[in-house]
Amino acid sequence: MKITESCIECLISRVQLECGMVGADSLLTEQTIDSCRNLLFSLKDSSLSHPQIASCIHRHAYEMLDNPDPFLNLKKQGNAEAVKVCREVRNELSGFRDYALASVIGNTFDYGVKGHSVTSNFSAFFRQEFRKGFVIDDTDAVFPLTARVVYLCDNCGEIVFDRLLIQYLKSQGSHVTVAVKARPVLNDATLEDAHRLGLDRIVDCLTTNCEVGEIGFCPENAPPVLSDAISRCTLIIAKGMANFEALFERNDLPPVAYLMAAKCQPVADEAKVPIGSKIALLRN
């Protein structure tokens, strides 16, 4: 997907949020926003996808703010809250659809979208959203494809529920390769987060989606181990909107299951669902 005017407004608002989270003064905030806006307008008509442009903007903001991980505290809080709720609900989940839905509800742990807020009572929110279910539910078609899975992770907090889904897949005999972010970007999960949750002891292969902090996945930038896994997999599970935006228009991939909450209007429009919808969408 290409960048839209609403995407530009959203990106700049996230830069402003990052400035506030690191305590930047008014001068540094103004300089950072102006510099990021100039970079954004120099890139918006390029061949780069929206996630690639957004990644460039956030990396530039972090350099100007001299802070490699503005979302660090929010990531810790998200993981802690998710672990708490996971313990409450895990015994109520049964079957691929339930675990997939739980992981999609976890996708709402997202601080990178203007107008979307993370609930202060995730336990109540989880049960409410679980009752609503999927708006698009291709899980019956997805599950038979899970012999060899490449799982592209997204946010902290969410990754706790991803772990539940991955454990279920492993219990059903799936070979699972998991890719997280190489470096901090927004509140996305990194190798450090994955190791802290013990994913390295669960999956067959734990790797990164590229060498830099990239919010979406670009197959051309994948490390060799991930490229090899994709060449042999039966299914890619792509979590979150950035992976959807990066991959949805491509036709050169194995089957892809997009598991996400549609938290902004451009993505909701592309998926043809109301904003806020939970979807499990299979593209063969």
Description:
With 284 residues, the chain is α/β, with parallel strands linked by helices. It has 2 domains: 5-65, Helicase, Ruva Protein, domain 3 (Orthogonal Bundle); 72-283, Uncharacterised protein PF01937, DUF89, domain 3 (Rossmann fold). Helices cover 49% and strands 12% of the residues. It is built from 12 helices and 7 strands. The chain has helices spanning 5-21, 26-43, 50-65, 72-89, 96-106, 122-132, 139-142, 158-171, 191-196, 224-232, 240-247, 265-271, and strands at residues 136-137, 148-152, 175-180, 205-208, 235-239, 256-261, 278-283. Strands 1-7-6-5-2-3-4 form a 7-stranded mixed beta sheet, with helices on both faces. β5, α11 (240-247) and β6 (256-261) form a beta-alpha-beta unit. The longest helix is centred in the first third of the chain and has 18 residues, at 26-43.
Based on the model shown, name its key terms.
single chain; 284 residues; alpha/beta; Helicase, Ruva Protein, domain 3; Rossmann fold; 2 domains; 7-stranded mixed β-sheet; 12 helices; 49% helix; globular
